[in-house]
Amino acid sequence: MVKRFVIAFAAFFLAATTASAAFAKDPVYTGLFSNNAVDGYDAVAYFTEGKPVKGEKTFSMEYKGAEWRFASADNLAAFKAEPEKYAPQFGGYCAWAVSQDYTARGNPENWTIYEGKLYLNYNDEIQKRWEADIPGLVAAGEENWPGVLDK
User: Fold this and answer.
1) Same structural domain for residues 82 and 92?
2) What are 125-144's pLDDT values in tens digits?
3) What single Pfam family name could you report for this chain, choosing any that match (predicted)?
4) CA dihedral 65, 69, 72, 76 (to 10 degrees)
């Protein structure tokens, strides 16, 4: 009986890990327990207010398989008109991590607008590393994107 259980468990584990490896990560980071892009923050507000602002469910839309929330109807309209202008680069994954050829959570509190594009990073320490060479790290990230989603 124990032997059957061990074999069944091993077969299940092998199937589960093989199946998960076969699927690429989502093109927009949403975390494990939500479908909110940018953790529910308003991507447009970074450009218009210069700071992270929580979005409202009232002002939301779906884009690239994720729910995007906004603080106002005007910001929702701006995003609808030009989503690529406002959506964070590298799908909202940590920009520094993408430059290093892996993915990590992008934190809406650790952000930069560089050459008109929004980049998120994992935490304050990673943000400092990012700020030390933004042009070089952007170039490295662009080389790795979107292939890094398959890793």
Assistant:
1) no
2) 999 999 999 999 999 999 99
3) YHS
4) -10
